[in-house]
Amino acid sequence: MADTDLFPAYRGHMEYFCLGCSARFDISELHYTCPTCSGVFLLRDLDFETLKKTPGQEWRRIFDARAASKNTALRGIFRFYELMAPVMEEEDIVFLGEGNTPEVASSPTLRGLTGLKTVYKNDGQNPSASFKDRGMACAFSYLKALVRKHGWDQVLTVCASTGDTSASAALYASYVGGPVKSVVILPQGKVTPQQLAQPLGSGAVVLEVPGVFDDCMKVVEHLADNYRVALLNSKNAWRILGQESYAFEVAQWHDWDVSGLCLFVPIGNAGNVTAIMAGFLKLYDLGIITALPRLFGVQSHHADPVFRYYSVDDPKERHYEPVAVTPSVAQAAMIGNPVSFPRVRHFAERFEAVGGKGAFQVVQVTEQAIMEGMILANRHGHIACTQGGECLAGALRAKELGLVSAEETIILDATAHQLKFVDFQNMYFTNSFPPEFGVTPRPELANAPELVIDPAEKAALSPEAYTLKAAENVVKRLGLAAKR
What we know:
Layout: E1 14-18, E2 24-26, E3 41-45, H1 56-66, H2 72-75, E4 103-105, H3 108-114, E5 117-122, H4 132-150, E6 155-160, H5 164-176, E7 180-187, H6 193-201, E8 205-209, H7 213-226, E9 230-231, H8 237-243, H9 245-253, E10 261-266, H10 271-285, E11 294-300, H11 305-310, H12 341-355, E12 360-365, H13 367-378, H14 386-400, E13 409-414, H15 422-429, H16 455-459, H17 463-478
Parallel strand pairs: 5-13, 6-7, 6-9, 7-8, 10-11, 10-13, 11-12
Antiparallel strand pairs: 1-2, 1-3, 4-5
Helix pairs in contact: 4-5, 4-8, 5-6, 8-10, 9-10, 10-12, 13-14
């Protein structure tokens, strides 16, 4: 067995750290918010400084070697074990194929249309077809470890979701099985049929609540505060740890040189943008990278509290307020009070302290721009969801504002697979958006199937005559020239 297949010997000493009151708690119990002040947690390895004894160049060698490992526990996000949750034993790590998602450079045609050197990181190629699997792999590995340690005979996992979280949580719960059962709470009528089918197919109990995600989250928070359940939303700090792997993978893909990169990430509940900043800062602290990329959060004008906060230039004058949301095609964006906003503020300050003013910024885009960003990307070979469209719209808005240049590499986060959001595409193509979305389709972007021959005409023809007639109609439609 190669050394790279051996599970790491290092074990950290981790604890919960409250961003509100600085209280600290042991990881042997499930915590989501601070029992003292209700603040959100970070997870910290108290032995992190010892990792600095290993030079950055050696860490790069280790992580690159592990990328070829045949060890299941190291094939996914835990190939960065020491940076993630280095308290797990090999037997506890859950791997369903998450992580290692590719970066796909945009075609020359798309780059010509946008004037930007764009690249999509396709996180829709994770097992449940979204980036949520990164966090769930870590959260369920920790939960599996607790079940083994405490001998629990029943664990009920619960989450609020606009679709992707529930699909991922239900998938991982069904795989772990045993005492672990899954319940998901969704906003009634605001999850696509494709996303709803996923937790149902995984056997989860699916409960619907009238309203939006924020209403579901209030119910879940009450359950987590008062009953023995395992909360799997991004209040769960183990999920944030797992999502840091996105930053590690981007750095590794670019041979650990992230200078000249600009990343665009949808904000939503703010867990992913938090994790990505945290991940890059870890790499920088260990000398694995020598500079930070620039990072842009993107929000729809239908749900933009973080944009409003950072639109005030003077940090002393900023004031955070939740907003009432209106319908968004980027369903994960329909969050007016992101749970992880305190984490965003914490890491953004550190990110700018290292990367300079403007290292972290937030741009606002319209629903129209989000839909057209998705359609534009997918017409040129991508598989972007509406959140991926939001990122392209954000990059184009940043270009319009003079915040990015044609020389920089723009990495766009396609958080989920296009197929989860085909209903919005169909509404665009058929001009059937409800008025509250504020989307007016452009006819030149529409696409629809065309009938080659009428069924009644087919019925009246012999099979041979039908084939000939249908082929003639295709030739006419496409203007084909006969072979010479």
